[in-house]
Design brief:
Layout: H1 3-13, E1 16-22, H2 29-37, E2 43-48, H3 54-59, E3 65-69, H4 75-88, E4 93-96, H5 108-117, E5 121-126, H6 136-153, E6 165-168, H7 169-172, H8 184-194, E7 198-203, H9 220-257
Parallel strand pairs: 1-2, 1-4, 2-3, 5-7
Antiparallel strand pairs: 4-6, 5-6
Helix pairs in contact: 6-8, 6-9, 8-9
Length: 258
């Protein structure tokens, strides 16, 4: 049995799938799907209201689980929908990978290895933020997000905005998340940390094409504003609820031990 066949078997043994949200990525979705299919056919694609040829391309792939809706609702909404659907299908883990070609499916085996080591953790694929063609707004946004994640949780992560992640679906599917766009990827990390779920990271490769070839749906002003509003709410919850609750819990535990 070759290495890729072993990985395919491991996907099944772990009840793990790959989640791919996509919106108007006709230029890259075929390549991404073909790459993932080399490792597993446990794939859930969410067509987030694409208006280009994405839907037609997806129809050419048989055996994948395809979700979709007419109006674009945002990456966060697509991920939330996929997490619930994947759990309903019996999967315990879901590895999300972006459909714009920046992530390499060759890193999937590393996620599976880490899942076996840390079965109750969210695993973030940490990118090299100094890679060639890394957009300046991505570098700033990531530092901004990392800072507030630390303030809200007391934990440090090097890449809180990476979309390449492994989620323990059985720990998340009942949680009610609110983020519908990019802010969801911050919300899920913070609220999972609050509930005691580990958040760890592994290094992954990343490719950013030149500006003339890049397709990005991240809107700097609008999406930074949404993320800022979310962080404001999370910080207030941290100050007035999460930290006081943790303090009271610690005092109660200490008292009961005396």
């Amino acid at each position: 049995m070759n290495g890729k066949n072993q990985i395919n078997v491991l996907f099944d043994e772990l009840n793990c799938c790959v989640i791919i949200p996509t919106y108007n990525n006709a230029g890259t979705i075929r390549q991404v799907l073909s790459g993932v299919l080399e490792y597993t056919d446990n794939i859930i694609v969410v067509n987030d209201g694409s208006t280009d040829e994405t839907a037609e391309i997806l129809k050419s792939f048989s055996g994948i689980h395809l979700l979709g809706y007419v109006k674009n609702k945002g990456k966060g909404y697509a991920l939330r929908k996929a997490i619930r659907h994947a759990h309903d299908l019996g999967f315990r883990y879901g590895i999300s990978i972006d459909s714009d070609g920046q992530h390499s499916p060759a890193d999937l085996p590393d996620f599976l290895k880490k899942i076996k080591e840390e079965p109750e953790a969210i695993i973030i694929g940490s990118r090299n933020l100094k890679t060639e063609n890394m957009p300046a707004k991505n570098s700033f946004g990531n530092k901004f997000s990392n800072f507030w994640y630390y303030i809200e949780t007391g934990r440090k992560l090097p890449d809180t905005q990476s979309g390449f992640r492994a989620y323990p679906l059985y720990l998340l599917h009942k949680k009610r998340f609110f983020g519908r766009k990019y802010e969801f990827e911050v919300e899920v990390l913070v609220r999972s940390a609050w509930s005691g779920i580990k958040t760890i990271h592994i290094p992954v490769s990343v490719y950013y094409p030149p500006d003339t070839e890049r397709v990005s749906h991240f809107r700097p002003f609008t999406d930074f504003f949404r993320i800022s509003v979310l962080n404001t709410i999370l910080v207030l919850l941290t100050i007035f609820f999460i930290k006081p609750y943790a303090l009271l819990k610690a005092i109660k535990k200490k008292t009961s031990q005396q």
